[in-house]
Amino acid sequence: MREVALGIDIGGTNTAFGFVDRKGNCLYEDTIVTQTHEDVDLFVKEIYDKVQKSIKKLDDIKLIGIGVGAPNGNFYTGAIEDAPNLRWKGVIPFSDIFKKYFNLPVFLTNDANAAAIGEMIYGGAKGMKNFIVVTLGTGLGSGFVVNGELLYGHDGFAGEMGHIIVTPDGRQCACGRKGCLETYVSATGVKRSVYKLLADNLEESELRNIPFNDLTAKMVADAANRGDKIALKTFEHTGRMLGEVLANTVAITSPEAIFLFGGLAKSGDLIFKPTKYHLEKNLLNIYKNKIKILPSGLDDNAAILGSSALVWKEHDRKS
Amino acid sequence: MREVALGIDIGGTNTAFGFVDRKGNCLYEDTIVTQTHEDVDLFVKEIYDKVQKSIKKLDDIKLIGIGVGAPNGNFYTGAIEDAPNLRWKGVIPFSDIFKKYFNLPVFLTNDANAAAIGEMIYGGAKGMKNFIVVTLGTGLGSGFVVNGELLYGHDGFAGEMGHIIVTPDGRQCACGRKGCLETYVSATGVKRSVYKLLADNLEESELRNIPFNDLTAKMVADAANRGDKIALKTFEHTGRMLGEVLANTVAITSPEAIFLFGGLAKSGDLIFKPTKYHLEKNLLNIYKNKIKILPSGLDDNAAILGSSALVWKEHDRKS
What we know:
2 copies of one chain form a homodimer. By secondary structure, chain A is α/β, with parallel strands linked by helices. Helices cover 37% and strands 21% of the residues of chain A. Chain A has 2 domains: 2-120 and 300-318, Nucleotidyltransferase, domain 5 (2-Layer Sandwich), CATH 3.30.420.40; 127-295, ATPase, nucleotide binding domain (Nucleotidyltransferase, domain 5), CATH 3.30.420. Chain A contains 8 helices and 13 strands. In chain A, β1 (2-10) and β2 form a beta hairpin. Chain A starts with a strand and ends with a helix.
């Protein structure tokens, strides 16, 4: 019997899920559209039906638990609480609904926390007890591991580095406030910085031909790699903002390493170089030249791996 | 036999020590001048001799361990590392020296961490698993308790909130950088803010008659309580700076409570009101109206209590 965990990543558009063994091998994966069902129960049932079918096809596997990564997922309550991008409003007791169908232990947290646990169980943070994972997607998420455990805080909502205010009265944030880090450091933040730089400067740039709604962070990275000055300045600015906040964050948790995860992290040196430079420049002496800034060690299926890792983390604790 | 811990607080000027029982009763206390001996061994021996004498006088006590709070004290190594205010330079293996004399378990950390453990064992944080203690003295120290454990970080140096940079290119800090929180929020920070406000404004103030070197934070608090406008503005400004950084810090560790400890915290509403106001104003929605801002529950002998608490924390873990 091969033991596997079911990892489920609930996104605003799609929900991906699959079986993952202790070593991080993904034995099966599938996707459904997240917002088809008005009734959450039917959403969970759709996953349940697909999983049951695939269990029958696979030889000799034993499902030992379910890990769910979801926006506003709360580890303590097992609920998704007021997620702005999901159609189910209020507090949805997701873990309970999954338990009803599967009759297995269910662990739920937000996607950035799941990424951090994934990094610890399968990725570059194996054996580390103090590190940070920063997920750079549409927004900026973060998961903190401290003394070998995920930092959930008093209410389950610790680790919202994206909502550190870096510029009082700065850019409008979806959270209703202004100047949050994720309005500068994220795929969306990069787009906003491009437009700010295009407004402030007269330099020619291929990005002057692209409407805001069509622009992607990948296009900005490609332009930077072709030597476009506005694109290069954008990445320098983004890395500076990130490096400065990381330096302040290190003064709180003093991690061994910081992992950058997600689309923007794939732009390589464009984001890593200025981030490292401005991190080191702003660190208190006692922390200098100690902290690794690394790309995530999770490749394909990272979201499923991260969610499934929640199960192995609890499993390892018991055994 | 009554079990007691020996708590030792090493300060730049004096070193205070005493016996404390599990309930926080201080059975004996004494003080020596920190910098008398060039040889650290003789410093420890002076404490040892005094402690031995007092053990003989007290009836029926059993010393179970030693807790030391010291500037730049590292819990992991038991050493004091490059403390700028002590005459012993480099890395001093304090725990080892104490063990040589006392043959007992020795736990050493910095003073702010000791205050946090003290708050958890004897003070207002009993039963709390996630909270922050901010010590407001000459500088600003902080201790973070997370999942019921002190947050030491990878290298033992976590919890330096005083060195979060709040104003790029701001006030010069003793750490060699600029704009650190403690240059604004501390007894010294208050003095500097008074002088800044006296320079920027024309308002009359009793503080215009006091030279910088004679001014104390207590004098500023007294002036504020008499209605002095510059003094009032100083506290408003100090509380705003602290509240804003606390709001960002909450987004990382999501604590149940934040305790303010030390001289400045004793100025009551003058510091608590603006701090609370600006904390709440700057919090991300999910954290609003959840976090208590409280005065430390440790009164007299707070430094000795904090240091001794390190022993009880480890003792409780084993039993």
